[in-house]
Amino acid sequence: MTETGFVILPPVVPMLPVKGRDETFPVRRIYCIGRNYAAHAIEMGHDPNREPPFFFQKNPDNIDTSGRFPYPVKSADVHHEIEMVVALKSGGTNIPVDTALDHVFGYGVGLDMTRRDLQGEAKKLGRPWEIGKAFEHSAPMGPLVRAEEIGHPGAGRVDLKVNGQLRQEGDLDQLIWKVPEMIAYLSEYFELAAGDLIMSGTPSGVGAVVKGDVMEGAIEGVGGIRVEVV
C-alpha cells in the first residue's frame, strides 16, 4: 500500500487550461455527438435530416494539450475532426432546454482524432466505436474560454487547415442539435456534472493525416488550435 492509502498511485486528473486564468479545468467525462452537421452526415453516407442525436464517449485521459499528436498504432487511416468543446460547471438530470446554458463554464477548440479504418470495421460488425475513437492522445484540445467573457456562441466560422490547405469549413449555426438541446438530451440518460465536456460535432471535409502534417483549426469567437502529427 502506498503512503496515500491507495494500493496503487491514483491516476492524475486530466485538466484543460483556462485562458487568462492560473486555475485549470478538471475533466470528468467527455461526451461526443455524432453526425451533427448535415454536410458531414452526407459525406459519411447518412441521411442529413434531423434524427434523434446519438453520443459516444472518449476517455478523459485521451486529452492532449501538447500540440503534438503521436500517430497511433494499428491504423493506416487516421482522420481529423474539428469540433467546438463545451465545458460544464454544473449538471444534473432532466435539465430543461431553456436553462441548459446556465450549466456551461466555457468553450474551446478540440480535435476528435479517429482511426477511421478501425471505426469502419467496428461499424460493419455492429460493435462499439471506442477502438476507433477513444485511443491515447485522440482528443487534442486548446484552452477553454469562459462563457462570461465570450457569451454562448451560436454562430461563427469553423475551419481546419492541414499544411496550410483548407480541409474543413462550416459554421456553428449549422449544428443540427444546438448546445442547449445536447445538454438537455444527455441529461435524460446521464447525470451530468461539473467537469463534463461535450464535443459538439464536426463539419464536412474530414480526411486523413500522416506524420509530419500540421493541423491548424479555428472557431470564430472561441479560439484556435495547432497540432503537429508526429
TrEMBL record:
InterPro entries: Fumarylacetoacetase-like_C, Fumarylacetoacetase_C_sf. Residues 30-230 form the Fumarylacetoacetase-like C-terminal domain. Keywords: Hydrolase, Metal-binding, Pyruvate. One of its GO terms (molecular function) is acetylpyruvate hydrolase activity. The keyword NADP does not apply. This is Fumarylpyruvate hydrolase.
